[in-house]
Amino acid sequence: MDIPFEPVVFGIKVNIHLVLEYAAFFVGFRYYLVLKKNTTDSISSSNRLSIIIGAVFGAFLGSRIIGFLENPSFLSFNLEYLVQLLSAKTIMGGLFGGLLGVELAKKIIGEKKSSGDLFTFPIILGIIIGRVGCFLAGIKEFTYGKETSSFLGMDLGDGLLRYPIALFELIFLILLWVVLKRYQSKLYSASGLLFRYFMISYFLFRFLIEFLKPNTFFVLGLSSIQYLCILCLIYYQKTIRKFFYAN
Q: Which residue, among 144, 120, 150, has the nearest Cα to 209 in the 3D structure?
């Protein structure tokens, strides 16, 4: 199979990345509904709906803002710029923006209970599906790595050997799924801990993997995604400290 993978159906070239991106949302949400049905939710249905709405709006804004900051070089006040700004998005901004949206929604409705655990595995599943699409898109999505002469290099569509960042992330997410599933019952003893460990692990991984990407916009040697990762780790610094003190 060639990368980018561009199947043709009834004479029409299919954007496989876009298809899998929508599939990620659909499958992830359906999986969430299955888990919710089979789990005793301590949060009322009305409050859970408010939390989901907060997460959606926060994720939308966060993904667009961080997506723009990844490549602000196209800043110009014209129609093309506005189209690029609206289409720019990143899962990292979506996750952190969704987190802030949830916290704001919970403040408004007065909900005190942690709400993230039920979303953890649906989110991981959605990212996995999305990253399959990123990998199949090759260099058409900015999830490819720098050129390399190591055995890890792959031709992603431009004839050069590059680090397949999306593939690395797929492997990491599968391993993270296995580990979290393995310790799920223990993590459930503290409400919200499963989700916090997912966020810490994923954002730490993304901070490190960004060094293998050909980023063109740096501030003090770090990309906008890496600064977001640092912000997330600071946000969860109490959980990180408790983890090391307990071990």
A: 144
Q: Which residues contact 30 (CB under 8 A, 6 or more apart)?
A: none
Mean pLDDT of 177-200: 86
Residue with the larger pLDDT of the pair 128 and 110:
128
pLDDT of residue 63: 84
CB 204 within 8 Å of CB 185: no
Q: Which single residue is written with the structure tokens 């929604």?
A: 105
From 168, 164, 196, select the one nearest 180 (Cα to Cα). Answer: 196
If one counts every other C-beta atom within 10 angstroms of the C-beta of residue 63, the result is 21
The share of the chain scoring above pLDDT 90, in percent, equals 40
Query: Which pLDDT value is given to residue 206?
Result: 95
Over residues 220-240, mean pLDDT: 92
In this structure, the strands spanning 8-9 and 12-13 are antiparallel
The residue written with tokens 């296995």 in the block is 178
Alpha helices in 38-90 (DSSP H): 45-70, 79-87
Which element (helix H / strand E) includes 156?
A: none
Tokens, residue 95 = 């996750």
